[in-house]
Design a protein that fits this description.
The structure is a single chain. Helix content is about 5%, strand content about 25%. The chain contains one helix and 17 strands. A hairpin with an 8-residue loop joins β5 and β6.
Length: about 300
């Protein structure tokens, strides 16, 4: 019994130790604390660091046809992404419409997935898996799609959405097919739920909505929606005068949502309703624009 207890204790300590060396979320943990206990690099040796390897995120140049001009290299594109490191693998979304898994010690590419559009500017997300589904890399794209990839193989999860992909524009941008809509930050994840916001237009007033939505990571089915500009019959709808709420864009989460895992709370920083710099057409308090909102993560009910 003592041997078994020691073995279980050792296993638990080992798992904690391994987890502490990982960086599975942009801000390190669901709360976005951005703290790592790693201490090998410190104020005494940081000046001695040298480049161990580099990875060129640009796609390979097309082969040159004899007699033709050499192809132009891909133009530089900006990225604000932080690579994720989980279980001895590094995951990165590139501005060249690719998601890659690398060996973090050598930079060797393990797998690559090419998308129709670039992943969110600030990166991708990771889900640890459960008994039904293997660990997944969760990707939202700048043109409004959401999909998950098997973290070991880079293959789409065929049971998610429509043949592995989910069109996030449906339900929020139907009236505005040309309106700007696309997540600029990676989704937040709690248990089996994926939370998405989006980057929208700054003007004019009417356009795609900034609603926050939760999706089941196994199927891609919509679990709940929080209307960032409350509809008739919803709490605080009276803050909007006359019909100024209708088709109002903005009040969106273009940045990072964070989660208090112990309390099951989702914190959402919401931007200004459109247009950003003129409020004459949106009198009143404009709830929930320019507001930090706390929701019950499981239900989407405001706290």
């Amino acid at each position: 019994m003592r041997i078994l207890l020691k073995t279980l204790l050792f296993t638990a300590v080992l798992r904690i130790s391994i987890a502490q060396t990982d960086w599975p979320i942009y801000g390190h943990d669901p709360g976005g604390v951005q703290y790592s206990p790693l201490n090998q690099i410190n104020s005494r040796n940081v000046t001695k660091l040298q480049v161990a390897w580099t990875y060129d995120a640009r796609p390979p140049a097309a082969p040159v046809t004899p007699g033709a001009d050499a192809p132009r290299p891909a133009r530089p594109r900006t990225s604000q992404a932080s690579p994720l490191v989980v279980g001895g693998m590094m995951y990165l979304g590139t501005p060249y419409s690719r998601v890659v898994a690398l060996d973090p010690e050598t930079g060797t590419k393990i797998w690559e997935y090419e998308s129709d559009a670039a992943p969110s500017t600030r990166g991708i997300a990771y889900w640890a898996g459960d008994r039904q589904l293997a660990p997944q890399v969760v990707v939202s794209t700048m043109n409004g799609w959401l999909f998950t990839l098997n973290a070991k193989t880079g293959k789409l999860n065929p049971g998610f959405g429509n043949e592995g992909k989910l069109n996030l524009r449906i339900g929020v941008a139907d009236k505005f097919p040309r309106g700007r809509y696309g997540p600029s930050s990676p989704p937040a994840i709690y248990k089996n739920l994926i939370f998405t916001g989006a980057q929208l237009q700054e003007e004019p007033a009417n356009g795609p909505s900034g609603d926050i939505r939760a999706w089941d990571i196994h199927s891609g089915k919509l679990v709940w929606t929080f209307h960032t500009i409350p509809r008739p019959g919803e709490r605080n709808h009276e803050a909007w005068q006359e019909d100024q709420w209708q088709d109002r864009s903005g009040a969106n989460a273009w940045g990072f949502m964070t989660i208090d895992v112990q309390r099951g709370l989702l914190f959402i920083p919401l931007g200004t309703p459109t247009p950003d710099f003129y409020g004459g057409s949106r009198k009143g308090s404009n709830l929930y624009g320019s507001t930090l909102v706390a929701l019950d993560a499981a239900t989407g009910k405001i706290k």
